[in-house]
Amino acid sequence: MTDDSEAKWAEFKAAVKVRKPEKAKGQPPCYCDASPQTILRDLLGGTIPDEALVRDCCWTEICRVWGGNSDAADIEQWRELCKRRGHLLARQDRWGI
């Protein structure tokens, strides 16, 4: 994480209490269980996993982290990520997966 993104994250955490929804016991961990810092790093690095893009719980967390750091992330990166998610979801629907 760059110094700038770390500073932005610290500012965001100070302004907003970070809460994650509770998961059912025994449910396997998924990408949205990662720390917001990890998600932000992956957003800035363009390395969000495909599986995270198609899971609603993960996408909600990704959007929350991006929303709190939208000035740190390039808007074009965000558009490309949204486009990638759309393609993945369309492919899932087409194959009925």
Write up what this structure looks like.
This protein has 97 residues and is mainly α. 64% of the residues lie in helices and 0% in strands. The protein has helices at 3-15, 36-45, 50-54, 56-68, 75-95. α2 (36-45) crosses α4. The protein is globular. The N and C termini lie far apart (35 Å). The mean pLDDT is 82.
Write the layout of secondary structure elements.
Elements: H1 3-15, H2 36-45, H3 50-54, H4 56-68, H5 75-95
Helix pairs in contact: 2-4
Order of helices and strands: HHHHH
Structural class, judged by helices and strands?
mainly alpha
How many β-strand runs? Answer: 0
Strand content: under 5%
Helix content: 55-70%
Shape: globular
- Summarize the main sheet: none
Rg measurement, Å: 14 Å
Termini separation (Å)? 35 Å
Compute the average pLDDT: 82
How many distinct helices?
Answer: 5
Quaternary structure of the protein: single chain
- Low-confidence spans: pLDDT under 50, at least 5 residues? none
